[in-house]
Design goal:
- 61% of the residues lie in helices and 2% in strands.
- It has 579 residues and is mainly α.
- The protein folds into three domains: 237 residues, MFS general substrate transporter like domains (Growth Hormone, Chain: A), CATH 1.20.1250.20; 71 residues, no CATH class; 234 residues, MFS general substrate transporter like domains (Growth Hormone, Chain: A).
- The strands form two sheets. A two-stranded antiparallel sheet has the order 1-2. The protein has a two-stranded antiparallel ribbon with strand order 3-4.
- The longest helix is centred in the middle third of the chain and has 35 residues.
- It is a multi-pass membrane protein.
Length: 579
């Protein structure tokens, strides 16, 4: 009997709703089935995103800046919807159902992309090589079908991205020492899978899209997602299911509403009389930050039942711990805000940098590198940076007083620093490319300049190094520094910084275009990249990144993590509510 009890996972159930048996559920077998969906998602998303600008310019004949904005808007929307997908999974659906439903939606989106790119009626006619300046742009119907397919895919992506990591970790019991170590390994495998999927996409699938046709590439993506969804569903009886505690967004709203409703109530003379839930085991001590939120913890005569420790109305009275959790989450926002710009820099690798590669010599013998495949240098540098840090740098740290290595904030700082160097390098490379354009203006008619595409490799590598540091730093910071019960929101903040960075790129492009065209000036981001001044745009990003790094260092210095402490329970007198 006792032996059977040790095989039960206390906080998980199986597909029948009974306590899960660790010998027949969860573990690496179940986690591997879930990782198949992540591999397919990364494969599809990267194959679509990195080659999107090429398709929009080369096939749909859209202007350079318009294409770049479509790319960044798609990325921004997908990551923003991931936050909503997480809320949906925690509040209404389980992670399992969210993955199953949104994986099908994702596959449907890629199927429609196959149709959109395959039917001649949904594409404008090819350009006349003799008159490249008279290409016909895609009409509203063609762009409407393509955009609908793209964003349907993005909706499916949001549910997968928000739920796969959480459901994967649900398959391991953190109270079991062996499975706790397996859970730690799961994060490493998860990140490895995402990079493998990305690398396959920017090499194999991009080559298929470039040489055979985009419809073939999207068709392969659809097949992979449908296959991985079938494999995922086949493991239904193997999974462990954990009850979600409810949406932390509701908790945040409850604190705000309660604080607003009691904004005129006076604080008690002894702040230890603020309400604390006696049933809450882990508590946070009261702090003096954001005192306005503390109004939600004041007990008034309307909070009936509080003295008898009955459950109060959470929209009227919140515990100190609940309020402090919201304060802690608010404290993350300055760090969150100063990491947004890196994603704006990162977005250029899939938009303007791909457009640069499209105009340059990319041949190695008889083989021509697809423009979007230059992202392989970025992915390679990410993997190499992580390997060097884990196997060379960390062993050195373990011999010092800092065996834990770089802190999460230090990693973020390094990532922001490399983004500055990357944009300086990108500006110099573009200056060289434009100088060749200026020397031989005839090359601009064919859109190709006699400059090796390998000139762009340093900017891809530098952004990759920065991404390796900042991704690891952000993920660690937002998860470990988020309060208990709000880890999902912490992950959501991480995804939101990426989303806002992509949207920030769109806004910056529009501002630059309007400002540089004033009074008959030269548009930095002209219809054709050879007619613009992309080097100055990269220089502007370098300056903004330098300023942003300074703001980040200031916020990091001011940031103070909140230690969790138990709060003593004292008698709590009722106060009369003033008018």
């Amino acid at each position: 009997m006792e032996e059977n009890q040790t095989q039960i996972v206390s906080d998980a159930v199986d597909y029948k709703g009974i306590p899960a048996d660790r010998t027949t559920s969860g573990g690496w077998v179940a986690a591997t089935l879930i990782l198949g969906v992540e591999l397919s998602e990364r494969l599809s998303t990267t194959a679509i995103a990195v080659n999107l600008a090429t398709y929009l310019i080369g096939t749909m004949h859209l202007p350079s800046a318009t294409s770049a904005n479509i790319v960044t808007n798609f990325g921004g929307t997908a990551y923003m919807l991931s936050l909503l997908g997480g809320i949906l999974a925690d509040t209404f659906l389980t992670r399992y159902r969210t993955i199953a439903i949104f994986a099908v939606v994702n596959a449907l989106g890629t199927c429609l992309l196959v149709v959109s790119t395959w039917l001649p009626q949904l594409r404008p006619p090819p350009c006349n090589p003799a008159r490249p300046n008279e290409c016909v742009e895609a009409n509203s119907l063609q762009m409407g079908v393509f955009t609908f397919s793209l964003y349907l895919y993005g909706i499916g992506l949001s549910g997968i991205k928000s739920s796969v990591p959480g459901f994967g970790t649900d398959q391991f019991d953190k109270n079991d020492e062996k499975e706790k170590l397996q859970m730690a390994s799961f994060f490493n495998v998860f990140y490895l899978i995402t990079n493998i999927g990305t690398l396959l996409a920017v090499t194999v699938l991009v080559y298929v899209e470039d040489k055979v046709g985009p419809s073939w590439g999207y068709g392969i993506c659809s097949a992979f997602m449908l296959l991985s969804t079938f494999v995922f569903l086949s493991g239904t009886k193997k999974y462990r299911y954990k009850e979600t505690p409810g949406s932390p967004v509701v908790q945040i709203l409850q604190v705000l509403v309660a604080a607003i409703r009691k904004r005129k109530v006076e604080f008690p003379s002894d702040l230890s009389h603020l309400y604390e839930d006696p049933s809450q085991e882990l508590r946070l001590s009261h702090t003096n930050r954001l005192r306005c939120l503390d109004k939600a913890t004041i007990i008034t005569s309307k909070d009936a039942g509080t003295r008898e420790f009955l459950a109060p109305n959470p929209w009227s009275l919140c515990s100190v711990t609940r309020v402090e959790e919201v304060k802690m989450l608010t404290g993350l926002l300055p760090i969150c805000a100063t990491t947004i710009l890196f994603s704006t820099v990162y977005a250029q690798m899939g938009s303007f940098s791909v457009q640069q590669a499209l105009t340059m010599e990319r041949s190695i013998g008889n083989f021509e590198i697809p423009p979007a495949s230059y992202n392989a240098f970025m992915i390679g540098s990410i993997l190499l940076t992580l390997a060097i840090y884990d196997h060379l740098i960390m062993p050195l740290f373990r011999k010092t007083r800092y065996p834990q290595g770089l802190t999460s904030l230090q990693k973020i700082g390094f990532g922001l620093f490399f983004s500055i160097i990357a944009m300086v390098g990108a500006a110099l490379a573009e200056m060289k490319r434009l100088s060749v354009v200026k020397t031989n203006r005839s090359t601009t008619l064919n859109l190709t300049v006699t400059v090796s595409g390998f000139l762009l490799v340093p900017q891809f590598i530098l952004v990759g190094i920065g991404n390796a540091f900042i991704y690891a730093g952000q993920l660690e910071f937002f998860i470990t520094e988020s309060p208990r019960g709000m880890k999902g929101i912490g992950t959501g903040l991480f995804l939101t910084t990426i989303s806002l960075g992509f949207f920030g790129s769109t806004i910056l492009v529009e501002i630059v275009r309007k400002v540089t065209r004033m009074n008959g000036g030269r548009d930095w981001l002209a219809h054709r990249i050879n007619d613009g001044r992309l080097d100055l745009f990269y220089g502007l990003l370098a300056v903004l990144s330098f300023i942003n790094l300074g703001l980040f260092l200031l916020c990091a210095k001011m940031y103070k993590p909140n230690p969790e402490q138990k709060l003593a329970i004292v008698d709590v007198p009722i106060r009369e509510e003033t008018a």
